[in-house]
Amino acid sequence: MQDAPKQQLAVTGGDRVAPEFFIPDLCAPRPVFVMILLAQLMVIVYVLASSALPRFNWDLLGTCSLFVQWVVLLSAAILCQLRAPFSRISLPVATLGSLLLVMAVTALSSYVALQLYPQIHRATEETWWVLRNMLVALVVMGILLRYFYLQQQLRVQEKLELLARLDSLRSRIRPHFLFNTLNSIASLIMSRPEAAERAVEDLSELFRVSLQETQRPTTVADELHLCELYLDIEQLRLGDRLQVRWQVDAGAREQSMPSLLLQPLVENAIYHGLSQLPRGGVITIDVSFRQSEIQVSVDNPLPQQARSEQGHHMALENIEQRLHALYGPGARLEAGPRGDHFIVRLSYAPGALL
Q: Is residue 106 within 8 Å of 72, Cβ to Cβ?
């Protein structure tokens, strides 16, 4: 097995990466079921090779199944408890420790089996039987660890590709976001220089907050703060034409939300909706946490001429791709005009992060 860092990368709620150990959690039902199934298939192959097919040796199948499954389950239970300590040491040492552990469990189980089944003494010499079992366990465990390692490398590669894809989607949003904000400030320089200066300060704070995603996971509260900073800048430009109605569940604020997920929706609501109305209007932002899902709704008035434009859809496609990449097909985004309003609804389960 090639030498590699003891920890690899995994996607987290902030579109970042976190450590991951190559041996799966053997306390989880799925890995244990797979190990039991593979061990039983190996026993069946051994019994088929050792007995004549017309007179299948059911006694041998039962005895071998009991012994092998005992070794598998006991080894899985111990490795489950030692997974955290092993994840903090180097990959070669963790691999060697796992192999020695399984061999020790096999040797001890073989010794107990010799005491419980004296007929084994008559079939083979005790020392050689124990040694044979240990060698079989060594080979099988080596193959299994190699499989776990390759599977983990594949997961890391997929997650790195996912991060690159998410970075690409974010890079499309950021310039659009910057240009629109600078245009808002530019419109204030001649008519309201003091307001423009205050908007520049807000913009500085806005970008400081938006760039924090590279340092820590982001939450709904973080994204709401980003929207508030952006709306403060737009408020200077639009004045009383811009009104915002917030409906945010207290329990939703601490849930994870990828950065620049909500802000582009608010930006679209202003630039392709409210700002084109002489009298302005009200943007309603609803964020709730129900049945383990974050549900977001952004409702804005829509002028007649904007209903056929594609300005909304460029950002919406990026956001939808990010949602599906992070949270799978269970994440949903729906958008479209409803009468004289444009409504965007999205939902995702924070716990379903891929």
A: no
Confidence band, pLDDT 50/70/90 cuts, at residue 124: low
In one-letter notation, the amino acid at residue 8 is Q
Q: Burial letters for 286-309: b for 16+ Cβ neighbours within 10 Å, e otherwise?
A: ebebeeebbbbbbbbbbbeebeee
> CB-side exposure of 242: number of CA atoms within 13 Å?
19
The rounded distance, in Å, linking the Cα atoms of 158 and 135 is 35
Distance of alpha carbon 41 from the chain centroid: 33
Residue type, 160: L
In the chain the domains, ranked by start, together with CATH numbers, are 8-157 (no CATH), 190-352 (3.30.565.10)
For the chain, first and last CA: distance in Å? 27
Q: How far apart are alpha carbons 344 and 341 in whole angstroms?
A: 10
- The pTM score is 0.54
Q: What is the rounded distance in angstroms from the CA atom of residue 330 to the CA atom of residue 263?
A: 22
Q: Is 243 helix (H, G, I), strand (E, B) or coil?
A: strand
